[in-house]
Amino acid sequence: MITASMIIELLIVLLALYVGSCYGSLALGAISGIGLAILVFAFGMKPGSPPTDVIYIIIAAVTCAGILQASGGMDWLIQVAERLLRRHPDRITFLAPLCTFFLTVLVGTGHVVYTLMPIIVDIAIKKGIRPERPCGVASIASQVGITCSPIAAAVVAFVTISNANGFDITIPRVLMVTIPACFCGLMAAAAASYHRGLDLDKDPEFQRKLQDPAQYAYIYGGNATTLDKKVSKEAKRAVYIFFGALAVIVFFAIFQNFLPTYESVKAIDGAGNIAVGTSVTTITPSQLATAKLVVPGATVATTVKLKMNLVIQIVMISAAALMIIFCKASPKKAVGGAVWQSGMVAVVAIYGIAWLADTYFSNYLDEMQVMLGDIVAKYNWSIAIVFFLVSVLINSQGAVVVAMLPLAYKLGIPGPVLLGVLPSVYGYFFIPNYPSDIATVNFDRTGTTVIGKYLLNHSFMMPGLISVFVSTIIAYLISMALY
C-alpha cells in the first residue's frame, strides 16, 4: 500500500538526483548524500549498503586506463582509429561510431571520445559531409560500448549481482549478448543518420556562415590530427600490457577451473552440528551432513574459488604497475588525465546514487513487490522501461545497474530477461547534459550538431533512441535463445 511518507521520501530521492544532475560531475554523488542523510536522520530509514565491490573494480580499471593514457598508449589507439577513418572518409557515418564504440569496449570508459571527435569533425568537413551525421551517432556509440566492455562497472556489477541472486553468468557470456546486439543497434542508428539533415552545400544556414571570412577561416582552417604525434616504443608496450591484462581477465572468466582456491571458515548461525563425542569446533561439510549434536560456536570449513571481482582488481592494478615500471608512465600525469578524473567522478556518483537508491528500495521492498509484482510477472521486459527512465536521471550505467538490479531480482524477474534488457540502462542522452555530448556540440565547427531550442530536439535524440531500442530487442532475443 502506498503511504504519504513513501511518496515524500521518493520525491526526496528524485529531487536529490535532479539537483545533482543540474550541477553535474561530482555533485551527482555528493548531493545524493544529502538525500541519504534526510532519509536516515529525518525519516529514520535503515541505511542500505554502499556498492563497495563495484567501486573497487572501477578504481582498479580506471587506474589502469589512466596509466595507459599517461604512457601515450591511448594516443596510439587513437592513431589507429584515425588512419581507418581517413582511409575511408566517405563511410565516416558508419566507421566513426564503430571506432568510438570499440575504444570504449577496450578501455571501459566513453571519455576517450574527446580526442577522436575533433578528428571526426575534420574529416567530415573536408569530405563535405554534414558533421552532425557521424558526430551524433559516434557520441552515442562511445557510451553504448560500456555494456560491452569486460572491465566496465556496468558489466562487472551485473555479473556480481546476478551471481549473488542465483543467475550463474560470466563476463564473456554477457558480452556474447551485448556486443552483437549493440553493434546492430549502432548500425541501425548510423543508417538512419546517413542522410540526416541537409548536405552542407545545400544548407542555407551553413552557406550563410561561409559569407563571413572569419567564419570561413574558422570552419575550414582547422586540421585536427594525431598522426603527427610520435608514438614511443614504451607507449606501444603499454598497449600490449593492457591488452594482455584484458586477455587474462577473459581467460579466467571463461576457464574458472584455473582460478586459485582457498579454504573459507564460516560460522553456522552461531552453532554447528557435529557427531557425538567430537570436541572440535571447526567441522567439514561431510561432518555437518551426519551431525547429531549442536555445539555452540561451531563453524564449517569450505573450499571456494577466487571471485572474478577480485581477479579484475588484481590484474588491473598489476597491469598499471607494469606500465609504470616498464613503460615510463607517469602516475602524476595519469592523475591529471581525463580518463582517470572522469573515472573518479563515476566512483563518487555510483557511491552516492546507489547508496541512496538502495536505502529507499530496501526499506520499501514489500510495497514494491505488491505494486509491481503483477505487472513485472506478466511483462518481464517492462523492467527495461524502468532502467531507461532511471538512467535519464542518473548519468551512469554502472549506477543504474547497482541501484536497480537487486530490486529487479527481488521482484522475481529471471536473470536471462535482465541480461536481455541490459542495453536499456543507457538513457542519459535523453537530456543532453552529459559531458561527451556537450563536447561534441562544441567540437563541430559547422554548428550542425546542436542542442535544440526546446532542449529535447537535439542531435543525439534520434540515434540514441534507435540504438537503445534496437539493441535491447536484439539482446533480449539473443538471451532468450541462449537461456
In summary, what is this structure?
The chain has 483 residues and is mainly alpha-helical.
List the helices and strands and how they pair.
Layout: H1 4-23, H2 27-42, H3 52-71, H4 73-87, H5 92-107, H6 113-127, H7 132-144, H8 153-164, H9 171-193, H10 204-210, H11 213-220, H12 233-254, E1 261-267, E2 271-274, E3 282-283, H13 285-289, E4 293-296, E5 299-305, H14 308-326, H15 331-335, H16 338-363, H17 365-378, H18 383-393, H19 397-410, H20 415-420, H21 435-443, H22 461-482
Parallel strand pairs: 3-5
Antiparallel strand pairs: 1-5, 2-4
Helix pairs in contact: 1-2, 1-16, 2-16, 3-8, 3-12, 3-14, 3-16, 4-5, 4-6, 4-12, 5-6, 5-7, 5-9, 6-7, 6-21, 7-9, 7-21, 7-22, 8-19, 9-22, 12-14, 16-19, 18-19
Overall shape: it is globular
The percent of residues in helical segments reads 55-70%
Number of helices: 22
Characterize the main sheet: 3 strands, mixed
Query: Major sheet: order of its strands?
Result: 1-5-3
Strand percentage lies at under 5%
What does the model show?
The protein is mostly helical. It has helices at residues 4-23, 27-42, 52-71, 73-87, 92-107, 113-127, 132-144, 153-164, 171-193, 204-210, 213-220, 233-254, 285-289, 308-326, 331-335, 338-363, 365-378, 383-393, 397-410, 415-420, 435-443, 461-482, and strands at residues 261-267, 271-274, 282-283, 293-296, 299-305. It has 22 helices and 5 strands. The chain has a 3-stranded mixed β-sheet with strand order 1-5-3. A two-stranded antiparallel ribbon has the order 2-4. The longest helix is centred in the C-terminal third of the chain and has 26 residues, at 338-363. The chain starts with a helix and ends with a helix.
